[in-house]
Amino acid sequence: MGRVEKTVFISYRRPSFPWALAIFQNLTQHGYDVFLDYNGIPSGDFEHAILGNIRARAHFLTLLTPSALDRCDEPGDWLRREIETALESQRNIVPVLLEGFDFGTPRIASQLTGRLEMLKHYNALSVPPEYFSESMTRLRNRYLNVPLDTVLHPASWWALQAAREQKAAAESAPVVKQEELAAQQWFERGFEASDPDKKLHFYTQSIRLKPDFADALINRGFARYEQGDLEGAAEDSSDAIRLMPNCPDAFLIRANVRREKGDPDGATEDYNEAIRLEPGYAPAYYDRGRMRHRMGDLEGALGDFSAAIRLQPGHAAAYHNRGRVCHDKGDLEGALRDYNEAIRLQPDYAPAVQTRGLARRDDFALALNHRGDARFAQGDLEGALNDYDEAIRLAPAYGLALYNRSNARRAKGDLKGAEEDYRKALTLGYNAKR
C-alpha cells in the first residue's frame, strides 16, 4: 500500500468562502497541510501558484453548490481549469456537495462538458450544515485516508511562496460562524429561485446575516435591476464595489443602471472598468455594445458585439444585436447571416446566470422580427411574413411585430389582414405613423 499523504487543495467559488475556510480550519487542526486561496491570487500568478499547488498536493477538494459550476462553460474559467488540472494530474478528487447540489439537475448537467463530465463519477461527500463535524470526520477517515499512486510534482518556488502566504492569512482568520454558513445557504436559495420576489427575499436574508456578503449584494442588485428598481440596484452594486473593488460583475450591473438612468459617461466608465478587470468578459462587451448602438455609435457597437461573439461563440443575443447593427449600416446580407445564427442558437438558450448578461428567451421572438425586417427590405415578402408570424406566435403581445406584419400584408395586397394587425398593435400600445 502506498503512502497516505496529508496535503490538500481546496477549490471553491467565491460565495462558498465560509465553507472553504471552515473546512480549512478543521483539516489544519488535524494535521493536514491545506492550500486555500484566501486573499486571491493575481491572474498573472495563476499558472504557477494555483495549478502548481494542485499538482504538488495529493488530495483535491472541489466545493460544489448549485451556483458553483454555472460559468464553467466559459473559456478560461478558473474553476474549470483547476478541476481539469486535478483530473489530468490524477489527484484524489473529492467533490464536496453543499446546499443541495445535485449532479442530475439539468442546469448543472449542462455545465459538465468535456473532461468535467468525469467529475460526477467520483465518490462525493455530502455535507449538511447541521452535521458539519461528523462530515469532516468522514472526510478525514474515509475520503482522505487513501494512498496516491501517481507522481506528486515538486512545487515550484512560486507555488511554495503562494502556499506559505495564503496559509498564514487563512490561519489568522477567525473561526467561521454559523451565521456565515447560513448566509451562504440563503444565497444559494436565491440563486435557484425563479420567482423574483422570493429571489429578493432570499438574497436580503443572506445580507442580513452577513452584511459584507458582496456576491449576495451583486445578485440582489441584478434582481432589483430586472424588476426596474434602479435606485436599489445602484445602491447594491455600489456597496459591492466598495467591498470588492476588483469584481467585474458589480461594475457591469452599475453600468447597466447608469445606462438606464441616462448617464452614458458613467456607464461607459463602469463598462470599461469591468473589461479592464476581466478582458475576456463577454457580457461587458455585449452590454456596452447595446449602449453604443442606442447612442448611434454603429462602429463601436459592431466592435463590441464582435468581441462578445469571439469570446463566447454561442452568445445568441450578440449575434442578434450585431445583425441589427449590420442592418442599420445597410449591410442586409450581414444582418441576415447574424439573425440566422442567433435563431439557430436560440432554442438551446436556457435562462442563465443573471450577472453574466445572457439573453432572455423573448430575444428569440425579437430576432425573428428583425430577420423579417431584413427580408422585407430585400423584397422577400413571404420570408418576412413567415418570420413575423412566428414572432407573434411566440409573443402574441409583440406590438412591433404586428405592426411590421401589417406593412408586409399591405405590400402583398392583403388590406384586410393589414388593418387587423394594425388595430391589434394599437390596442397593445404600439403607436407608429403609417
Q: What keywords describe this structure?
A:
434 residues; 20 helices; Serine Threonine Protein Phosphatase 5, Tetratricopeptide repeat; 4 domains; 5 strands; Rossmann fold; 5-stranded parallel beta sheet; mainly alpha
Secondary structure layout plus pairing:
Blueprint: E1 7-11, H1 17-29, E2 33-35, H2 46-56, E3 59-64, H3 78-88, E4 92-97, H4 106-109, E5 125-126, H5 132-143, H6 157-171, H7 178-192, H8 196-209, H9 214-226, H10 230-243, H11 248-260, H12 264-277, H13 282-294, H14 298-311, H15 316-328, H16 332-345, H17 362-377, H18 381-394, H19 399-411, H20 415-427
Parallel strand pairs: 1-2, 1-3, 3-4, 4-5
Helix pairs in contact: 2-3, 2-6, 7-8, 8-9, 9-10, 9-11, 10-11, 11-12, 11-13, 12-13, 13-14, 13-15, 14-15, 15-16, 15-17, 16-17, 17-18, 17-19, 18-19, 19-20
Describe the structure.
- With 434 residues, the chain is mainly α.
- The chain has four domains: 7-171, Toll/interleukin-1 receptor homology (TIR) domain (Rossmann fold); 177-271, Serine Threonine Protein Phosphatase 5, Tetratricopeptide repeat (Alpha Horseshoe); 280-343 and 352-359, Serine Threonine Protein Phosphatase 5, Tetratricopeptide repeat (Alpha Horseshoe), CATH 1.25.40.10; 361-434, Serine Threonine Protein Phosphatase 5, Tetratricopeptide repeat.
- The chain contains 20 helices and five strands.
- It has a five-stranded parallel β-sheet with strand order 2-1-3-4-5, with helices on both faces.
- Helix 1 links the parallel strand 1 (7-11) and strand 2.
- The N and C termini lie far apart (84 Å).
